[in-house]
């Protein structure tokens, strides 16, 4: 189960870097398209930390960090490759993926700071409460780390691209969105933790039988 949670985490992380290039509007909210994806990575991180521990959560953060660096390198190489004569979309390709390059840089900084902060808060509360009050550590760690993530990411990714008023509006609207999701994802955290623990208990039982 651990490997699948890691795969979902890293996959959504990379996908969010590409989707962040597009901005969409929902009522008065202006959000990067990644807002519908990236928030789920915090849920995955909480589940990994709850079931597999703080060290496993840190390793997942490191895996995501290095994967983003590798993605950034290959995006740069892909942009520099000479386009084929029949390929007429080089300008559009560069426009989209150059944006992704800056977004990945912003993501690296905000991701590393916020995810590590989230793990620290989550496990500080877990040390105090044990297995009880998962809803509290899930909510508090996500809400706090997402605030830092939002400020850093939006500022680095979009400073100079959109007016300052739009920038501030994006920070506020994106954090409100993330705050709502942090409240709503708690039942899913309980469900995934239960499934992961059941899966690990089954694996342990099979190992004991095999020995």
UniProtKB/TrEMBL annotation:
Family annotation (Pfam families): Vut_1
A molecular-function term among this protein's GO annotations: transmembrane transporter activity
Membrane topology, as annotated: Multi-pass membrane protein
Subcellular compartments: Cell membrane
Keywords, sorted A to Z: Cell membrane, Membrane, Transmembrane, Transmembrane helix, Transport
Signal peptide coordinates: none
Superkingdom of source: Bacteria
GO cellular component term, pick one: plasma membrane
InterPro entries: YhhQ (IPR003744)
Transmembrane spans: 30-49, 61-81, 101-125, 146-169, 175-193
Family according to the record: Belongs to the vitamin uptake transporter (VUT/ECF) (TC 2.A.88) family. Q precursor transporter subfamily.
Name of the protein in its database record: Probable queuosine precursor transporter
């Amino acid at each position: 189960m651990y490997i699948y949670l890691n795969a979902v985490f890293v996959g959504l992380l990379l996908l969010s870097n590409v989707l962040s290039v597009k901005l969409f509007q929902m009522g008065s909210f202006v959000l990067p398209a990644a807002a519908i994806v990236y928030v789920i990575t915090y849920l995955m991180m909480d589940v990994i930390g709850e079931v597999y521990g703080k060290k496993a959560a840190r390793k997942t953060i490191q895996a995501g960090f290095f994967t983003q660096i590798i993605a950034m390198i290959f995006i740069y190489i892909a942009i520099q490759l000479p386009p084929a004569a029949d390929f007429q979309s080089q300008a559009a390709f560069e426009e989209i993926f150059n944006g992704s390059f800056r977004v990945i840089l912003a993501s690296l900084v905000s991701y590393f700071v916020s995810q590590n902060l989230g793990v620290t808060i989550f496990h500080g509360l877990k040390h105090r409460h044990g297995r009880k009050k998962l809803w509290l550590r899930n909510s508090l760690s996500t809400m706090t780390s997402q605030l830092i993530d939002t400020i850093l990411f939006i500022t680095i990714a979009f400073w100079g691209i959109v007016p300052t008023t739009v920038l501030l509006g994006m920070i506020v609207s994106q954090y409100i969105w993330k705050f709502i999701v942090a409240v709503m994802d708690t039942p899913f955290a309980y469900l995934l933790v239960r499934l992961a623990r059941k899966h690990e208990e089954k694996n342990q039982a099979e190992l004991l039988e095999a020995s």
